[in-house]
Each structure stands twice: as C-alpha cells, then as structure tokens.
Amino acid sequence: MQEPLFMQPVFQEKIWGGNRLNTVFGFELPSDKIGEDWAISAHPHGKSVILNGPYQGMTLDQLWAEHQELFGHQSEEVFPLLIKILDAEDDLSVQVHPDDAYGKQHAGELGKTECWYIIDANPGAEIIYGHHAQTKEELTQMIQEGRWDDLLKRVPVKKGDFFFVPSGTIHAIGKGIMILETQQSSDTTYRVYDYDRKDDQGNTRELHIQQSIDVTTVPAVTPQLAVKEVRKGNSAVTTYLETEFFNVYEWQVKGELTIAAKGPYTLMTVIEGYGYLVVGDKEYELKMGTSCILPNEIKEWQIKGDVKIIASDTAK
C-alpha cells in the first residue's frame, strides 16, 4: 500500500505579505512579509519536497517525471496543479492571467485558471472580481485614463466564501484576507494596476498593460457555481467546482469520514482543526497547514477528528 506524500511548505516573500501564516498556521517563517505558502507545487519558482516515505527528499517535479505510476500515468508534461495559502496583509495588485494558448505562446507555460476558498477575512474586506467595461476599446480607455473606480467591480467577502477565477478575469485579493488557492501550475501574472506602490528601494512594480488588455475577457463573465453538499452523519463533503482543469472539494469532518478517490490522485490541505488521516492500518497526523498528495494506489481513506480540508483532483 502506498503512503500519502506529505509536502514541505515553500514560502514566498511579497510586498503585500504578513506573518499570519505563523500566527494562524504555526509555520516558522523566514520573514514577516510572507505572502504565500506554496503548499503543493512542482513549479520551477517553488518546488515542494517530499517529507516522508521512500521518496523523501525528492521534489514533486522529479517525482512526476520519474514515478508516473504514483499519478495514474498522466499525459501532461508538467504536474498540472499548484496549491497555495495566501495571507494578504495589504491589497494585491489588480491583475489578470492568460489562458493556456496565450500562456504557452507568450510565457512558455500553462495559463492560469484559479479558485479561492476564503479561510478568513477581516470585517469589511473585499476583493476585486470582474470589471464594468463592455468592449475592448472601453476597457483600454478606462485603463489609460486611470478610471479604476468606474472600471473595477468590488465584492465583499467573508470566511467560507468560494470564488472561481477563470483565466481572463480581472481580479485582486484585498487586504485582511487569507485564502486557499487551487490553480493551474503557472506563475504568469499580468498587472493592470498596483496603486502606484513603491518597494523598499522606491521603485514601482512593473505593469503589463498591453498583455492585460489582450487576455481580459470582455464583457466580464461571472461564473455560476453549482455547489453540492452531501452530509454524512455530522460530517459533510462539499463539491465547489468540477472543471477541465481541476475539481475542488471541502471535507468538513466531525468524528469520522470515509472518502473514496474520484481522480487518479488527490491533493489535500488542512485549513482548520486537528485530526488524523487513516490509510489502511496507518494513521497520519493532520494539523493546520498540513498538505499531502494521495497517490493513485490509495483508493479509499478515512479522516478522523474535528478538521476542515480543501481537496482537489483532476478528471484525467
């Protein structure tokens, strides 16, 4: 029986980061401006290292290349998903991501469709999610004239909200928000606006106006979610998304919950509480921030305790 593959977090310093990945999740952070924990990643900009078992010390991209049996023998060249926990101590830049075709042509990597589970949000917190322009010409003009209040659509958020952010969606996470992000394995971001912020050296960050205009969906489309909840005793499985890129679930466990694999492998990250993952006759501790992959051979497992997990898989 294969073991779950537990991941070493990869921390990314950001101009908008803070220290709540320490105060909330208990991670030891290298600075107090950490914006992102790349919890499960095979991306060159931050590779997860396996913490346990026969593959201990290997990186996830290496495992994908050399041990496809763990993933059900997939055809993709690169591991397709990237899981992050983000701590927005300040507003993120207003940005947009390309689709696969544009990303591969202009950035040499996948496009970036993503989704957000709001782990926590300060009172009054909001995101930018979409825009009001009706044509590319209007979008271009509003950007060039700096009419951000007219252009950008603001949406209040609270703990437990979920948002699907397809490529082409203008978006920004606002200050005071922590999220679990499930996304395609891409680090291509086009900044539309960054509040004229300066870094420690007094420089403003690079903007990508033409690329942003190229890839933005106009008029904006707000995806309709078909959220499904299945209760099992005191526990529940919620399916937030089923897309060509990834499927995303919430496992809210109070007591014990048995789960069967739906995809060729399953990713999971603990965002609340404490418990145990049971595979066969082995138990593994689950605390906040724990991330692992359940490889192909593991077809069923149990979660015990009082714990909330965001999980994902692919249809292939």
From TrEMBL:
| TM spans (from-to) | none
Q: Which reaction does it catalyse?
A: D-mannose 6-phosphate = D-fructose 6-phosphate
Q: Which cofactor does it need?
A: Zn(2+)
The Phosphomannose isomerase type I catalytic domain covers 6-105
**Residues noted as binding Zn(2+) in the record, renumbered to the chain:** H97, E114, H171
Could you tell me what the cofactor note in this record states? Answer: Binds 1 zinc ion per subunit.
User: In its keyword annotation, does this UniProt entry include Isomerase?
Assistant: yes
EC number per UniProt: 5.3.1.8
Domain spans labelled Mannose-6-phosphate isomerase cupin? 237-312
What does UniProt give as the signal peptide span? none
Q: Name one GO molecular function term.
A: mannose-6-phosphate isomerase activity
UniProtKB keywords: Isomerase, Metal-binding, Zinc
Q: Which SUPFAM superfamilies match?
A: RmlC-like cupins
Please list the GO biological process terms of this entry.
carbohydrate metabolic process
**InterPro entries linked:** Carb_Metab_Reg_Kinase/Isom (IPR051804), Man6P_Isoase-1 (IPR001250), Man6P_isomerase_Firm_short (IPR014628), MPI_cupin_dom (IPR049071), PMI_typeI_cat (IPR046457), RmlC-like_jellyroll (IPR014710), RmlC_Cupin_sf (IPR011051)
Task: Kindly identify the residues recorded as the active site.
Answer: R191
- Which Pfam families is this protein grouped with? MPI_cupin_dom (PF21621), PMI_typeI_cat (PF20511)
Which family does the UniProt entry place this protein in? Belongs to the mannose-6-phosphate isomerase type 1 family.
Among NCBIfam families, the record links this protein to: manA
PANTHER family xrefs: FRUCTOKINASE, TRANSCRIPTIONAL REPRESSOR MPRA
Query: What name appears for this protein in its UniProt entry?
Result: Mannose-6-phosphate isomerase
- Organism of origin is Enterococcus columbae DSM 7374 = ATCC 51263
